[in-house]
Amino acid sequence: GHDIIFFWVARMVMMSYWLTDRLPFKHVYLHSIVCDEDGRKMSKSLGNVINPLEIIDGTTLQSLVGKIEGSLLSKAEKSKSIEKMQKKLPEGIPECGADALRFGLMAYMV
Asked: N or C: more exposed end of the chain, with fewer CB within 10 A?
């Protein structure tokens, strides 16, 4: 996560320099971490992500709920995720197509 990246890079630099007298890399590239509305990192294991194909092709609420129910989340997390899904997407996700998805992602990242 974003909270440990500094320490990971520092450790790699120090160990590499100590062992080889060379730096392991010249540049470090960071990318944004996408968070949900509660500030938690988006993660398949947390069940707070949506498959981009479900935005392109559309999907039903029952399909989305089925994926949450079949996940490895705790019962409390499952019920919380299902409740949010039912509130935010009561009719599922309508078919939007690839262009709408690209436009939405570009608008978010810029």
From this structure: C
Q: Give the number of other CB atoms < 10 A from CB of residue 64.
A: 22
Nearest to 56 by CA among 99, 92, 90: 99
CA distance 11 to 15: 6
Query: pLDDT tens-digit profile of 68-97?
Result: 898 888 999 899 889 988 999 999 999 988
